[in-house]
Write a structure and sequence with these properties.
By secondary structure, the protein is of the alpha+beta class. The protein is built from 19 helices and 18 strands.
């Protein structure tokens, strides 16, 4: 069969229908600009083409909708600036437990320039320097003469500076309203409240805690609107905070100390009612917070707490069951691992457990630690939270230090406060457990009810041990080194600590870190108060030394005398168990 005949037969057969089930659509003919006809093939897949067109329509519809929405939003809404521009985002106010403002937002003007609109960069620089002479002339000129569309020149101007620059009438220079953090109380609670950076973001203290707790996400989402943010209430009482800082400042002057600090904690809830560390800084001038001497010594510094640690040694011995409060120990000097354990002021006789505490016996404390053993000693201090990093809202918290390997000599020296360094705040928190019936409660700078405290507290010593420690604190307050902390109407008990400071790996006798760890009213404790005084000097004309009994304890007394009524502790002037006679 010839080829043409075969092709004709194939076309007439059903084979063609199987190979081409549907004839292709005819091509579309269009004319080009020159009048020539062009044939465009029809799309092979109409569904894909339709989907692509639909996606493009949706994307541009969303973009258009957002532009319309942003154009309709009032200027005071943080979302107006978008996620990349949060300078007007508000922060919640910070208030004390009574609603007194500790931190709030105020509006301020910041200076910017649009270099492309600057007519004469040299003249503009001279004019701006006449109002802001502290600006770097070279940097200012370089910014104004650049090709950038926007540059900051100075953040947070005063109203007077803003008006003076406006009067200059420099084209290409403008102002933008920003939110600035303002602290009405200045340095009163600086280490607690913290600071923000120039972009109004928290970088220290409770300001940073607020950001880390979710505020930063709200801000980035454009939802940080001032009128919609509830104030953040703290546990501190601004009145008591002021008293504490005032008395610590007076103590630094009176005893010529390089630093001082203090804290008051509610023993039933773990709330911090006041905490101060001096020297401090004004958060309205946040640059001062970077100075080394202005660090928060109460939570961010670790120190050997000296004889205040004997509180925990005695509690450990009693709680172990291996030592009874009626037991006595020999206080003669003895040697361990080449070191001599001896008394600071020896009584030259055996001492009972109460006498060991009252006379602050190093040898007696070492024997108490030896009676329970090294492992139990380390476990007990860990149980009280003295060997691990404290968990609280403040980000500035240091980790304690301890020996890498505990030996017998380590346990004995730690028993009277040498060899372990911890934060003063941790020391006060551990003492709370000895006063409140035996429960360790994590400290908080936020309000906490007794019911909420019950949910987080942990028993660390028995009720009996807690009762015996209250008795020992009261004994020391009445007959021991704590007598100078007594306040008329408020029975105060506690334990002093005078620790020689370690410098270049050696103890220096004339440099001391003193502390008084107290509780009141001691017959039914409600608060623990701790005061530390760093490198105090003997008070002139008083004929007394520089021990904790002569500086830290009197400072505690001054704080309690002024703040007890504010803490709702009523004074009682009659003897315990006796009625007050009243004549008519």
């Amino acid at each position: 069969m010839r080829l043409p005949q075969a092709i004709a037969r194939l076309k007439s057969s059903s084979m063609l229908k199987r190979l081409f089930p549907k004839a292709p659509e005819p091509a579309v003919s269009v004319a080009d600009p020159f009048g020539r006809r062009r044939h465009l093939a029809p799309p092979r897949n109409k569904a894909r083409f339709t989907l692509a067109i639909g996606l493009f329509v949706c994307v541009y519809a969303v973009i258009g909708g957002r532009l319309v929405m942003w154009g309709a939003v009032p200027n005071e809404r943080a979302s107006y600036f978008g996620a990349r521009d949060q300078i007007m985002a508000a922060r919640p106010d910070i208030v004390d437990r009574n609603g007194e403002v500790l931190a709030t937002d105020i509006k301020t003007a910041s200076l910017f320039a649009e270099p492309k609109n600057i007519v004469d960069a040299d003249e503009a620089s001279e004019l701006l320097l006449s109002v802001l002479p502290d600006l770097d002339a070279k940097v200012l000129y370089r910014r104004l003469s650049s090709k950038a569309g926007f540059v900051w020149l100075r953040r947070e101007l005063t109203p007077a500076q803003q008006q003076q620059i406006l009067d200059l009438g420099i084209p290409g220079v403008g102002f933008r309203t920003e939110k600035r953090r303002f602290y009405p109380g200045g340095s009163t609670a600086s280490h607690i409240v913290g600071i923000v950076n120039v972009d109004n973001q928290g970088i220290a203290g409770m300001e940073k805690y607020i950001d880390d707790s979710g505020y930063r996400d709200i801000q980035n989402a454009g939802l940080a609107v001032g009128n919609d943010l509830e104030p953040v209430k703290l546990s501190i009482d601004l009145r008591v905070q002021h008293i504490m800082r005032d008395e610590l400042a007076a103590a630094m002057v009176r005893y010529k100390a390089i630093a001082a600090g203090g804290v008051i904690i509610d023993v039933s809830t773990g709330e911090v009612l006041a905490m101060a560390s001096l020297p401090d800084y004004d958060p309205n001038n946040p640059g001062d917070a970077l100075k080394k001497e202005n660090m928060n010594r109460m939570s961010a510094g670790v120190f050997e707490m000296g004889s205040t640690f004997k509180s925990f040694t005695t509690a450990m011995a009693l709680d172990s069951g291996k030592v009874k409060i009626t037991d006595s120990f020999d206080t003669s000097p003895f040697r361990v691992s080449g070191f001599t354990i001896k008394e600071f002021h020896s009584k030259h006789r055996p001492l009972s457990v109460p006498e060991i505490f009252k006379y602050s016996s190093n040898v007696g404390s070492a024997h108490e630690a030896d009676a329970v053993g090294i492992d139990f000693h380390r476990e007990f201090l860990t149980r009280l939270g003295l060997l691990s990093r404290l968990k609280t809202e403040l980000p500035e918290v240091a980790s304690p230090t301890q020996p890498a390997v505990w030996k017998k000599i380590n346990s004995m020296t730690i028993s009277y406060g040498h060899g372990v360094a911890t934060t003063p705040l941790q020391t006060a928190v551990a003492a709370v457990a000895l006063m409140n019936g035996g429960f360790l409660i994590p400290p908080t700078f936020l309000p906490r009810t007794a019911q909420e405290a019950d949910a987080v507290k942990t028993r660390v010593v028995s009720e009996k041990t807690s009762g015996e420690m209250r008795y020992l604190y009261q004994l020391n307050g009445e007959e021991g080194s704590g007598r100078s902390a007594n306040v008329a109407g408020y029975r105060v008990g506690g334990k002093t600590g005078t620790a020689e400071k370690v410098i270049n790996g050696r103890y220096v006798g004339n440099k001391r870190f003193n502390a008084y760890l107290a509780s009141f009213p001691i017959e039914a404790p409600r608060y623990v108060v701790l005061v530390v005084v760093d490198e105090p000097q003997p008070e002139e004309g008083k004929g007394v030394g520089a021990t904790a009994a002569s500086n830290a304890a009197p400072t505690v007394a001054a704080i309690i005398r002024r703040s007890a009524t504010l803490l709702k502790v009523k004074p009682e002037f009659e003897e315990p168990g006796k009625s007050l006679l009243v004549s008519y």
